[in-house]
Each structure stands twice: as C-alpha cells, then as structure tokens.
Amino acid sequence: QVTLKESGPALVKPTQTLTLTCSFSGFSLSTSGMRVSWIRQPPGKALEWLARIDWDDDKFYSTSLRTRLTISKDTSKNQVVLRMTNMDPVDTATYYCARFPLSGGMDVWGQGTTVTVSS
Amino acid sequence: EIVLTQSPGTLSLSPGERATLSCRASQSVSSSYLAWYQQKPGQAPRLLIYGASSRATGIPDRFRGSGSGTDFTLTISRLEPEDLAVYYCQQYGRLPYTFGQGTKLEIK
Asked: What percent of chain B has pLDDT over 90?
C-alpha cells in the first residue's frame, strides 16, 4: 500500500523559512520513473504545483517560486523535503505531497499539512 | 506557462443525471498529458483520469475523460450524491505544471 504523509510546523512567522517533510512508504524514489511533487492550496482556492524531484535527482520548480524553493530527497529514509524561504502571509495554505510516476498523473496524495504564516 | 480554464464554475445537477465538465488550455497539451482530480470537502485530491482518457486504479467507469490538443472534457454519468466535489484538470506535459481553477459539482 502506497502512503505519503506531510509534516512540518503549523505556524511560521513572516520572513522565516518553512521546512516540510514528506514521508512515504510502499514505493522507492530510487526506482526508475518515480517522482514526487509538492502542491499547495490556499484556503478556498485552487491547487498550485510547486516542485518535483525525480528518481535520478532531477529537480523542477514553479516559475514564480523558483528562487524561494528547494526540494531534496533522502532515499534511505523514504523522505522528500521542501524548503521555502522568506515566508509571507500569502503562503498560508495546505501543502500536499504526491507520488507522480512517469506513467502519468499524481496518483497518490498525502493528507496535507496546513501552514499559517502570521506574526 | 499553460493556462487551464475550466467551465462552468459551478454545476448543479440531480442524482442520475450526467455532468459535463470542460477544461480548455491556452496552448496545446503535449501527448495529452492531461489529468482530472476530484477533491471532496475536507479531503486531499484524488486522481480520476490521466493521459486525458485513462481511468486511474479503482475509478468507476461512470467517469470518462476525453479530448486532445486544447479541449478536454470530463463526463460523469449517473450522478450519485457522493460525487459532490470540486473537480480540477491539470496539465503535466510542459513545465511548470498547471491546474485549472476548478468546477464545483453540486448534487441537488
């Protein structure tokens, strides 16, 4: 059974750096063709794709957030980490990680973790 | 980036009816790399369709995806009360990946 779970702080202050961890099981990110993405959703709004990391350590980012995002993986721990710098209240959202195999579509999602940016 | 425009914004139908949801792309979506997701209230999104027309594992055949190029459609037949949700399309053929703004499906 494939599962993913996001973890991180529920509250961060403006200008701080957010670090989120996606812990997963049931698949390996060292398997050819496997990928993990991060997506976020502000309250009442649409989904927004943030970043992707691949089995071969290729990394891809949202154009508008590229300078603030860093995605990394620890294959031995089955974890993917997303760092977002210089947090702002507009970054308040639920953050999801999802498995994204080459076969197409983000086929398994975590439950999401809600992050509020406020002083 | 490719902009996806979904219509209608809200759709209100009765059980047993058919829902037709549209997703239009600002540029051609390569290789039909278009997915549909269902998000029920308070839940994470769930993959319904990938590759424009392939159903994800466990998705009933009431859900059908079609289209190519810039015009895509999700059709839900024989609506059930549990189909109440927001439906999003997403293109993953060109980075950055993008989502539509969603169609809210209400069941009368």
From this structure: 97
